[in-house]
Amino acid sequence: MKAIILAAGEGLRCRPLTLTRSKVMLPVANRPILEHVISSLEKNGIKEIILIVGYEKERIMNYFEDGLNFGVNITYVEQKAQLGTAHAIEQAKKLISPEDSEFLVLNGDNLVESKTIADLLNNYKGDASLLTVRMEDTAGYGVVLKENKRVTRILEKRPGDLSHIVNTGIYIFTPQVFETIEKTPISENGEYAITDTLQLMIDEGKIVTSIPTESKWLDAVHAWDLLKANSTVLNSSRNLKQEGELEEGVIIRGKVAIGKNSRIRAGTYIVGPVVIGENCDIGPNVVILPSTTIGDNVSIRSFTEIQNSIIMNDCRISSHGQISNCIIGSNNTLGPGFTAEEKENLEININCKIHSAPKLGTIFGDDNRIGGRVLVKAGVMIAVNCQVESGNTIYRDLPRDSVVL
Ligand SMILES: CC(=O)N[C@H]1[C@@H](OP(=O)(O)O)O[C@H](CO)[C@@H](O)[C@@H]1O
C-alpha cells in the first residue's frame, strides 16, 4: 500500500521554531518528527511514500533525499499554495493508479508508533476509514459522531463537548475519493478540507468507518508540546548506544545515548533518559537531567545544568547556565551565566489568542547570540538572528533580527 504524507504546512503555532523549518522537521529525540512517521510506516511494510511538500521544502528534501537511507522510496509532490488537506491529497492523484485498491494518508507532523499504523491497517473497511483516539480536551481537532463503527458526522474544530472521539488525520481511502475531493466545496476559512470530503461521502451514502486506537499518537500543537513529545519518546526508547568518549569521573544513571565523536569530560553527571548527538563536547562538571535531547556539534561548558529540554545542533552553551524546560534552536550561542526563568501554567499570547502552557522556560529559534549573565523571563521567546548584549533581562518576545544593547 502507498502512503501519502502531508508535510507542506509551516506549523504557525510552533513559531519561532518553524520560522526556519517546517513542523515536520522539528526534532524529537534528535530525529525529525517526519522520520519517526516514515519509520513507523516502514515497519508496517509501507515503502512507497508520496511526500507532499511546500513550506521550507528544500530542508525536507535534502534530509530525506530519495528515502533509501530510511528504507523507503520517496516521491515528492509540491503543493504550491496551502489550500487545505483535501487539496494537498489531490496533488498526489496522478501517482495513485486504479491498481492501488487503497492508500494511506497521514500527517507528517504527528508522532505515531508502528502499532498505531497497524491498528488501522488491520481493521479498515468501507470506502474510507479514519483512525480515532479518545480525548477529553478536543479543542483544535476534528471529532466524529458514529453509530457502531460507522461515522455519521465529522465536526471540524467546533467549540463544546460534541464528541470526545478525535480524528487523528490518519486515513485509508480507495482511489474513488478523488472524485469526491473534486466536488468538495471551499470551507468558511478558505480551505478544501478532507473532513468536508468525508462528510460529503457520508451524505452520499458511502461507508466511512471509525477505527479506534490506544497506541501512541502525539501532536505538537504548540512549540512547547515538543518537550512532552520528546520526553515520551525518550522514555520509551530502547537500545540507546554510548559511542562517544567518557573521561574518568563521569557519572551516568539510567538510559543515556551518546553519539560518535562526542566527548563527555570529567565530573559530568547525566541522568537519563537523555540523548546526546555526535561531535559534542560536554563538561567538565556539567549536569544533564531527564528528559533532555542534545543535538550534534554542541558544546556545553562547566557548571551548566540542563533539564527536560531540547538543544538543537551547533549550539555553544557557556559555563554556569540554568536551562530547564527550554527549547533552544540550532546555532545559538549562550554566554556564561545564562538563566532561563521557568514557571508553571503560563498564559502565552500567539496571534492575539491566549494559549496555556504547562511548565516552561524559554523557546529560541535559530542563530541567536546571547551575551553573559542574561536572564530570559519564563515563557518569553526569542525568534531568529537576535543579539542580546551581556547583563540584560529579556521580558518580552524578541522578533527576528532584534538587537538588545
Ligand atoms: C481539515 C482537516 O483535515 N482537519 C484535521 C487535521 O487538522 P489540521 O488543523 O489540518 O492539522 O488534523 C487533525 C489531527 O491532527 C484532525 O483532528 C482534523 O480533523
Automatic annotation (TrEMBL):
<dbReference type="InterPro" id="IPR056729">
    <property type="entry name" value="GMPPB_C"/>
</dbReference>
<dbReference type="GO" id="GO:0006048">
    <property type="term" value="P:UDP-N-acetylglucosamine biosynthetic process"/>
</dbReference>
<dbReference type="InterPro" id="IPR029044">
    <property type="entry name" value="Nucleotide-diphossugar_trans"/>
</dbReference>
<dbReference type="Pfam" id="PF00483">
    <property type="entry name" value="NTP_transferase"/>
</dbReference>
<dbReference type="InterPro" id="IPR005835">
    <property type="entry name" value="NTP_transferase_dom"/>
</dbReference>
<dbReference type="GO" id="GO:0003977">
    <property type="term" value="F:UDP-N-acetylglucosamine diphosphorylase activity"/>
</dbReference>
<feature type="domain" description="Mannose-1-phosphate guanyltransferase C-terminal">
    <location>
        <begin position="270"/>
        <end position="381"/>
    </location>
</feature>
<comment type="similarity">
    <text>In the C-terminal section; belongs to the transferase hexapeptide repeat family.</text>
</comment>
<protein>
    <recommendedName>
        <fullName>Bifunctional protein GlmU</fullName>
    </recommendedName>
</protein>
<keyword id="KW-0808">Transferase</keyword>
<feature type="domain" description="Nucleotidyl transferase">
    <location>
        <begin position="2"/>
        <end position="234"/>
    </location>
</feature>
<dbReference type="GO" id="GO:0019134">
    <property type="term" value="F:glucosamine-1-phosphate N-acetyltransferase activity"/>
</dbReference>
<dbReference type="InterPro" id="IPR011004">
    <property type="entry name" value="Trimer_LpxA-like_sf"/>
</dbReference>
<dbReference type="InterPro" id="IPR023915">
    <property type="entry name" value="Bifunctiontional_GlmU_arc-type"/>
</dbReference>
<comment type="similarity">
    <text>In the N-terminal section; belongs to the N-acetylglucosamine-1-phosphate uridyltransferase family.</text>
</comment>
<dbReference type="Pfam" id="PF25087">
    <property type="entry name" value="GMPPB_C"/>
</dbReference>
